[in-house]
Amino acid sequence: METAGVCSILSALILLMALALDATATTNFCSRALARKACPTPPTFDSIDIESYLGKWYGIGTTAIFRFRNEIGAVCAQANYSIAGGSTAGQGLNISLINSDLRVIGPSSSLGVSLISGVASQVCSSARKTCSLVAVDSQLQNAADQLTKVAGTIQSRHFFAKVAGTIQSRHFKEASVLNTTAHQILTTLSDIQSGLDFLARTITEIQTVNSHLSQANGSTASSVVRLRELVRKATAELSSLEVVVINLTIAPPQDLQLMVNSLLNDGDTTSVSQIFQASFWIDEGKVAVLSNLEFIRLSLDGLVNNVPFLFSLDQITNNPAPSHLSYVRGNAIQNISSAAKLEVIIDGFSGPYWILDLVGQAKDGYAASLVYGCTENERDNITENLFIISRTSKLSQDIINQLMQVAENNGINTDCDDPFLYTVQLGGDCGNPPVTA
Ligand SMILES: *[C@@H]1O[C@H](CO)[C@@H](O)[C@H](O)[C@H]1NC(C)=O
Ligand SMILES: *[C@@H]1O[C@H](CO)[C@@H](O)[C@H](O)[C@H]1NC(C)=O
Ligand SMILES: *[C@@H]1O[C@H](CO)[C@@H](O)[C@H](O)[C@H]1NC(C)=O
Ligand SMILES: *[C@@H]1O[C@H](CO)[C@@H](O)[C@H](O)[C@H]1NC(C)=O
Ligand SMILES: *[C@@H]1O[C@H](CO)[C@@H](O)[C@H](O)[C@H]1NC(C)=O
Ligand SMILES: *[C@@H]1O[C@H](CO)[C@@H](O)[C@H](O)[C@H]1NC(C)=O
Ligand SMILES: *[C@@H]1O[C@H](CO)[C@@H](O)[C@H](O)[C@H]1NC(C)=O
């Protein structure tokens, strides 16, 4: 008994310490979500010796959007860079590349992975939109600010009266109710942000399990069980959020009625109309938040109802694609004025390949590299890719953390729509990718 008590106090302390560290070390999901409107322009590692960068690299991990768009069912991602025939003196280097991997899951499992990834990013994007509904410049925050302002006006506009021996505003009570309401709304908005932060973490875990399914890492059955657990967890988090949202409401209706009557008796139609306006904003904002949460709930329901069976179908139909090699060829053209910025061209499509950080010495061909690319599609919509590649098929967690810290310091998103996912490497030749470009 004694020991158990000490243990639980200790673990509670450790948990508290972890929470405190976490809170200071990172911002929350909503503040990151709102900061993300244009591609960041992180500094690149321009002192790179590009020739030392050539040769073979192993994929250590990629962010989810890239992974589930290009590498479903793939393990053993490798790249081989060499000097292209078309290199011209006085230009940045023209590099030939071969990206290869080994596909290890069947077609219906691949469909399952693709559906899970689609739902996860949809849910995450709805959570982001919900952040903007409860943010600093949102209609809901404006409503709370307006109520505080009206309270101030009411206090100063109306004649003072003697109440129980002290001089007070005739509408002191009304002003105070409005103040309390404004405060409750602001508290609720901040509670919603915390709730969204928890939800975002659970969605990230769903993406990680999906990455295990995609790479046949561990048993499919146990990953599917884990997926169901995580969806249940996310659904419970949604329910708590819905309970919090109920508090987005103006003072109890009967108080509001009394307040309005009393102000109208004094002819203060301005305050009354401002209160009604705030009340309208609050109702509208609340409906919008609830409808986002409902959309998230339906998406998650669909995920557990329709997707898991896909993972057993390949065995049932005896259609497991035997492991097969997959590869693409392309070029990477180095920017003449910024040595660590390359433009990768594959099948006529091009995208930025920026080397943000290198571990190890040029003379040893470097040990690991942090690669980033970002493109702006539309207003407020960017697509980012982040990769870590290494000269060896395994890279120490310390180095991975160090590189991810560089990414985080540069404001690169690895939240629930695009978390960083590790790549399974089996060692050896792992499917023997072709040697020549
Ligand atoms: C780069 O080299 C490839 C051949 O590998 C060639 O087709 C391409 O035109 C070259 N690109 C540039 C920009 O030099
Ligand atoms: C309402 O809040 C304002 C500012 O927060 C404060 O100055 C004022 O005294 C409050 N009024 C009442 C009646 O609580
Ligand atoms: C709603 O607001 C009341 C009054 O401020 C508070 O006591 C209660 O805990 C809130 N409920 C939730 C779910 O946050
Ligand atoms: C090369 O990099 C410089 C500096 O970042 C940039 O201004 C320029 O547009 C880049 N050139 C190309 C062709 O991308
Ligand atoms: C972002 O843009 C891409 C391409 O234009 C589009 O497919 C995607 O749906 C957009 N996402 C959002 C959240 O607007
Ligand atoms: C494979 O699964 C194990 C167990 O869940 C996990 O610890 C490991 O990180 C996974 N590997 C990759 C590359 O995702
Ligand atoms: C990488 O490509 C070059 C050029 O095609 C080739 O000579 C080399 O053997 C390849 N390296 C590996 C490890 O496949």
Shape label: elongated
User: Could you spell the SSE succession in H and E letters?
Assistant: HHEHEEHHEEHHHHHEEEEEHE
Q: Give the N-terminus to C-terminus distance in angstroms.
A: 67 Å
Q: How large is the count of helical segments?
A: 11
Computed over alpha carbons, the radius of gyration is: 28 Å
Biggest β-sheet: count, sense, barrel?
A: 8 strands, antiparallel, barrel
Strand content: 15-25%
Low-confidence stretches: 1-10, 12-25
Q: Count every beta strand, where a strand is a DSSP E run of 2 or more residues.
A: 11
Number of domains: 2
Counting helices, strands and paired strands, the structural category is alpha+beta
Trace the largest sheet across and list its strands. Answer: 1-2-3-6-7-8-9-10
What molecules are bound to this protein?
A: 2-acetamido-2-deoxy-beta-D-glucopyranose
Helix fraction, binned, reads: 40-55%
Mean pLDDT: 87
Assembly status: single chain
